């Protein structure tokens, strides 16, 4: 809670110094209670801001109220970005430079928050040259550009001659001026600032796309994973708008690699107390990087250590404090040596004066003290010899201190050489990381193209399968219709054959009847001729029906010729219909 309080105080200090507390103290306090989720205490607020000698600008001051009624009640369940944005809003308008900058207001806000993180723990807040160099290197590395050490050294020399460091607004002007980002566009600089902001302020240790296996459907979905010191969050995409879930990390979690299975490669498993998560990385390198990053995070949780960037910041501060203490100690020793040397000089000067006085007195009393002159000279010689010995010892001590000082300076030079070698190694590592990042981006792009082509082929294959299934169904339906038509045709053919047989039978009966009719007609004609010849009759007149009837050998036919023709037409119509 002490570290959190220090972080809050830096942002509040900016807002506090930018406001006229007599008129705006209540507004600041109210806004702090709101963004920090601290219960409001209107009575204490009015009591503290009353117009008397106990008010916030009196000897009592604003800090006791801030500590007692606000900061001591903060539990950590608040949005740090929203808190910083509120403080930024109160102080930016008054302090932000009016000259045009190469960065946006949002980027300036992020630089301001980073300044509060890297600044020294003393007021007024400043950021020392070492932290400025660290921040500019991080931004340059995020932009993919080369670090200009010589240019910064010149700037550092010019800065050290005038002041100890920069304020937040001077740092924003420095980055916004583009002095250390020449040749880069606004978008590149903005993305670099955002990347450094995510790492230093939002504690984003690693992020990227991977495939995650579901717990219910057991399907694989692509998610954007974000690793923080105690949690892994995964989202639908990198815009972080649609959050799908969290993986809570603690000292009991572990991560291990898995063999390839079910067509998925580069698999690893995250084991927690209540759940396990199967994840597939894009390649072996990414898999190893994620495993190492998660394992490092779990190890830090077990050890109770802070995130790497916070630990590095603390080490840099401790190193600066150590160097400052050593420098102060060296200056103190040099001052002590100088004081001791001055004291000895004063002692020698006093002895010299005493000797001169004694010589003067001896010269005056030379005539009177001839007998004691030898004794005085011997005494003087002894004292002079003693003083010479003392002086020689002092010179030896000074030489010894000088030697120790030279050894210390040699050690400082060795440390500086080691620091330069370490910087060169860090530069090589940064270059390797940049090359690695370039290859990763190329691999990611190729993977995305391959995934898109595979999805398109699968879509075409699915459409082809659906078409084949529809064609098979239509073919089956046509086959069924053809079978039904063939059955109906067979029935119709059978009926046609039956009608043909019936027609043939009817024709045969008709031919037989016709033959019988002709025979009967011939017989009747022959009979009539005989009767007419023998009896003299011309014709046989018989009463009968007015309609002409067929006459058979057995008498009148059962139907007339008209009825017979009608039946013949009916048979022909049925035959044509069957055909």
UniProtKB/TrEMBL annotation:
Keywords: Cell membrane, Cell projection, Coiled coil, Cytoplasm, DNA-binding, Membrane, Nucleus, Phosphoprotein. SUPFAM superfamilies: PH domain-like. Phosphatidylinositol 3,4,5-trisphosphate-dependent guanine nucleotide exchange factor (GEF) which, independently of RAS, transduces signals from tyrosine kinase receptors to RAC. It also mediates signaling of membrane ruffling. Regulates the actin cytoskeleton as an effector or adapter protein in response to agonist stimulated phosphatidylinositol (3,4)-bisphosphate production and cell protrusion. Its main location: membrane. InterPro entries: EF-hand_SWAP70_N, PH-like_dom_sf, PH_domain, PH_SWAP70. GO terms for molecular function: DNA binding. The SWAP complex consists of NPM1, NCL, PARP1 and SWAP70. It is found in: Cell membrane; Cell projection, Lamellipodium; Cytoplasm; Nucleus. This is Switch-associated protein 70. GO terms for cellular component: cytoplasm; lamellipodium; nucleus; plasma membrane. Residues 309-530 form a coiled coil. Residues 203-299 form the PH domain.
């Amino acid at each position: 809670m002490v570290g959190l309080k220090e972080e809050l105080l830096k942002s509040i200090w900016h807002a506090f110094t930018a406001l006229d507390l007599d008129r705006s103290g209540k507004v600041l306090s109210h806004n702090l209670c709101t963004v920090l989720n601290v219960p409001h205490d209107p009575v204490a607020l009015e009591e503290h801001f009353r117009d008397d000698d106990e008010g916030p600008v009196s000897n009592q001051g604003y800090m006791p109220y801030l500590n007692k009624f606000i900061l001591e009640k903060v539990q950590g369940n608040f949005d740090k970005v929203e808190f910083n944005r509120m403080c930024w809003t109160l102080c930016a308008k008054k302090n932000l430079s009016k000259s045009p900058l190469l960065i946006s207001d949002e980027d300036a806000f992020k630089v301001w928050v980073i300044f509060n993180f890297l600044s020294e723990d003393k007021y007024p807040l400043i950021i020392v040259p070492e932290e400025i160099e660290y921040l500019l290197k991080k931004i340059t590395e995020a932009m993919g550009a080369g670090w200009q050490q010589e240019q910064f050294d010149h700037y550092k020399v010019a800065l050290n001659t005038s002041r100890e460091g920069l304020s937040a607004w001077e740092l924003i002007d420095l980055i916004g001026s583009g002095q250390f980002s020449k040749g880069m566009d606004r978008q590149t600089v903005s993305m670099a600032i955002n990347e450094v902001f995510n790492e230093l302020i939002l504690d984003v240790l690693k992020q990227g796309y991977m495939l995650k296996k579901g717990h219910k459907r057991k399907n694989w979905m692509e998610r954007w994973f974000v690793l923080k010191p105690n949690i892994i969050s995964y989202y639908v995409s990198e815009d972080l708008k649609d959050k799908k879930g969290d993986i809570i990390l603690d000292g009991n979690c572990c991560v291990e690699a898995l063999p390839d299975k079910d067509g998925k490669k580069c698999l690893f498993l995250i084991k927690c107390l209540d759940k396990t998560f199967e994840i597939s990385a894009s390649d072996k390198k990414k898999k190893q990087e994620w495993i190492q990053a998660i394992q490092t995070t779990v190890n830090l949780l077990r050890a109770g250590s802070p995130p790497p960037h916070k630990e590095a910041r603390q080490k840099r501060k401790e190193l600066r404090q150590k160097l400052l203490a050593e420098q102060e100690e060296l200056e103190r020793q040099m001052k002590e040596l100088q004081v001791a040397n001055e004291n000895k000089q004063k002692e020698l000067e006093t002895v010299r004066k005493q000797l001169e006085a004694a010589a003067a007195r001896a010269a005056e009393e030379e005539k009177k003290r001839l007998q004691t002159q030898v004794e005085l000279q011997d005494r003087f010689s002894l004292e002079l010899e003693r003083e010479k010995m003392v002086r020689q010892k002092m010179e030896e001590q000074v030489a010894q201190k000088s030697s120790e000082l030279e050894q210390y300076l040699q050690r400082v030079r060795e440390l500086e050489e080691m620091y330069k070698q370490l910087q060169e190694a860090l530069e090589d590592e940064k270059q390797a990381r940049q090359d690695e990042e370039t290859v990763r981006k190329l691999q990611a792009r190729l993977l995305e193209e391959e995934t898109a082509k595979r999805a398109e082929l699968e879509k075409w294959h699915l459409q082809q399968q659906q078409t084949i299934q529809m064609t098979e169904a239509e073919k089956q339906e046509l086959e069924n219709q053809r079978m039904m038509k063939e059955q109906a045709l067979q029935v119709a053919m059978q009926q046609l054959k039956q009608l043909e047989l019936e027609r043939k039978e009817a024709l045969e009966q008709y031919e037989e009847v016709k033959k019988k009719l002709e025979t009967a007609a011939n017989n009747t004609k022959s009979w009539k001729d005989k009767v007419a010849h023998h009896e003299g009759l011309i014709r046989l007149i018989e009463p009968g029906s007015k309609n002409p009837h067929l006459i058979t050998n057995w008498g009148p036919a059962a139907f007339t010729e008209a009825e017979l023709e009608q039946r013949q037409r009916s048979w022909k119509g049925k035959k044509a219909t069957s055909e």
